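Q: I'm building a small set of examples for a reading group on sequence design. Run inverse folding on the following structure and report the sequence directly after it, with nothing in between.
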């Protein structure tokens, strides 16, 4: 066999492992399987404890919510799954990795938007907090209703014609009231009075005439 064939044959064969390496690989594989089995048992045990708590909570007619202590996301996921199967709703609140916990609610007693907002803000939801928010809602509603009752226009307290009819008479008061009615486009001056019907040529001629008269008047004053 030549040198090239010898090299190619040696490349086709995988490198052989020693007995020590084989034993180490076997131990690593056994340790990984053992950890996986331990985690599986741990999750199974936790799920069983959650199911027991949820069932006991469901049978208690006085309790409306069930709070679990802060835990990792994988465990919170188990709580959410158990709650959904039991026909309940679950919400998680708090900061991830610090104090995030899960709250389970019965189907007949879902949380209000105010409660969810309060818990998400890191505050505790109590009866006192609920009363405080309800009182604030009532004040806002009363303010809105009071604002809606305000008239859009200001109504004068006295009538113009009645107030001055002893001075100018009833008919004159009426005429005066008609004259002082606001014109929508030009205020109190009629729009016809503001129109200039002169042409441009006539306007320029009038301006020149006024200037000429002014100059002649000044010249006569100086000569006198």
């Amino acid at each position: 066999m030549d040198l090239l064939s010898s090299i190619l044959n040696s490349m086709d064969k995988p490198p052989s492992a020693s007995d020590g390496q084989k034993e180490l690989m076997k131990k690593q594989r056994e340790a990984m399987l053992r950890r996986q089995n331990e985690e599986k048992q741990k999750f199974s045990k936790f799920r069983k404890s959650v199911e027991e708590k949820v069932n006991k909570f469901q049978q208690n007619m006085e309790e409306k919510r069930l709070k679990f202590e802060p835990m990792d996301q994988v465990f919170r996921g188990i709580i959410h799954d158990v709650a959904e199967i039991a026909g309940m709703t679950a919400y998680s609140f708090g900061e991830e990795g610090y104090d995030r916990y899960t709250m389970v609610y019965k189907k007949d007693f879902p949380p209000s938007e105010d409660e969810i907002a309060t818990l998400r803000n890191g505050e505790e939801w109590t009866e006192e907090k609920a009363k405080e928010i309800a009182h604030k809602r009532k004040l806002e509603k009363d303010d809105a209703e009071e604002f809606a009752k305000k008239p859009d226009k200001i109504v004068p307290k006295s009538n113009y014609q009645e107030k001055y009819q002893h001075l100018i008479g009833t008919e004159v008061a009426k005429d005066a009231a008609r004259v002082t009615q606001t014109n929508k486009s030009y205020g109190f001056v009629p729009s016809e009075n503001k129109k200039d019907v002169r042409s441009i040529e006539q306007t320029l001629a009038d301006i020149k005439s006024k200037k000429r008269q002014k100059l002649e008047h000044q010249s006569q004053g100086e000569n006198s």
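Residues 30-111 form a domain with the Ribosomal Protein S8; Chain: A, domain 1 fold (CATH 3.30.1370.50).
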